[in-house]
Specification:
Layout (H helix, E strand, L loop, with lengths): L6 H11 L5 H9 L3 E4 L4 E4 L8 H6 L4 H8 L10 E5 L5 E4 L13 E5 L4 E6 L6 E2 L1
Antiparallel strand pairs: 1-2, 1-7, 2-3, 3-4, 4-5, 5-6
């Protein structure tokens, strides 16, 4: 179940990962930290930002973006500069990649990364184009 989050937890994640998340992604997560995204091919569980405001939120956000990105990077063919934002439960991820002109700024575009072949495929121009449940 998704719930709002204080922007300070997004900023902490950005500082930890050394990136800046795209505007529309941050706005979606401020209003609903986590949740489900539906694409043509898969249902994706969106990773939340780690919310340390109370025990309940810590428990609900323990599969946060920092942790899941760290675990994704253990795959031998996961893109080094990618941030994992969702999973389909089968080992594949939705990812954000940095802009070509600025490695610290993540693009609004969302990509899928398939673990078996290491393939990356653009899914959508931004998070608002995906159907949210």
């Amino acid at each position: 179940m998704a719930f709002p989050i204080d922007v300070k937890y997004i900023i902490e994640t950005e500082e930890h990962l050394g990136v800046e998340f795209p505007y529309e992604f941050k706005q979606k997560m401020i209003n609903q930290n986590g949740g489900e995204l539906i694409t043509e091919d898969y249902d994706w569980q969106l990773y939340p930002f780690f919310d340390k405001s109370d025990k309940k939120r810590i428990s609900r956000t323990c599969n946060h973006i920092i942790l899941e990105t760290k675990q994704a990077k253990e795959w031998h063919n996961f893109p080094e500069n990618a941030v994992a934002i969702a999973t389909n439960g089968c080992g594949d991820y939705l990812i954000l990649l940095p802009l070509e002109k600025d490695a610290k700024q993540l693009s609004e575009k969302i990509y899928s990364w398939f673990h078996e072949k290491g393939e990356i495929k653009e899914v959508t121009k931004n998070i608002t184009e995906l159907i949210e449940e």
